[in-house]
Amino acid sequence: MEYRHLGRSGLKVSEIAYGNWITHGSQVEEDAAKQCVAAALDEGISTFDTADVYAGTRAEAVLGRALHGVRRESVEIFTKVFWPTGPGSNDRGLSRKHILESAHASLRRLQTDYLDLYQAHRYDYGTPLEETIRTFEDLVRQGKVLYVGVSEWRAEEIAAALKIADEMGFDRIVSNQPQYNMIWRVIESEVIPLCEPEGIGQVVFSPIAQGALTGKYQPGSAPPPGSRATDPSGSSFIQNFLTEALLLRVQELRPLAEQAGLTLAQLAVAWVLQNPNVSAAIVGASRPEQVRENVKASGVRLDPDLMQRIDDVLGPEIQRDPALTKSPPAGR
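User: That's the sequence. What structure does it adopt?
Assistant: Structure tokens below.
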């Protein structure tokens, strides 16, 4: 496993991070979740990403139990706040009340005294940005949060947060967590050009497009039993990638992966890591062997010719325009 700085901060993270959206607390039993976390640790993954809303807060609790007994200084724990975690009108958003209450609840579930990275899971148009930034700053000053990031924010929203932090003398955002893969490249046009010079790294999710880039979904065939496309908790997200045209092109990537000595999934993760603004790629797993396979993408260098051939194969299926952005479903 290789490690990278989180943006321009001093924090180092494993370039492949383990994420537990969908899996922990819903898709797999706790024993399987613990086995996946153990496999991640064995393979050198030190960075673990979750969110309070995943599986209705259960994912954080499962991760906390899975990491119990692990030397705290040896791992980086990321979580997020924004989506509803209760029925009340203040059980959502980025108000001071919700951020503080959610941070304390996440700390309890994760069984830790501090969060390495606390992320605004979406932008809150109903709360003054100054209130949100000041509340994150307070958590940093209290030692409960070490670094602050955002997830799926637009370039202009990130720029506004940076301006407020600079004017008020607060710690700046160090990361953004967007969807990014061979197909979905909308951050390349505006988000990365803003973030890179500002020292903000991308912690990207869905590097294998929820499994669409693994090659297991065959054109003209029903999704294999037990796959994410058949799971009600995540199937709506992957459906955007399961078009006949795209699945045909994914199969055309197979010989390119074989020439590089990689599986299609490993090629997809390695492709994401070629971008210098990417600090880490988040992978999920329902079985330990999936973790062990995915980490083989760490340290892989793809030559420019192969990168161009990938673009040539995917062609019109590549989504680059920010205007095409479809926000991931609530909870992601």
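The chain has a mean pLDDT of 92.
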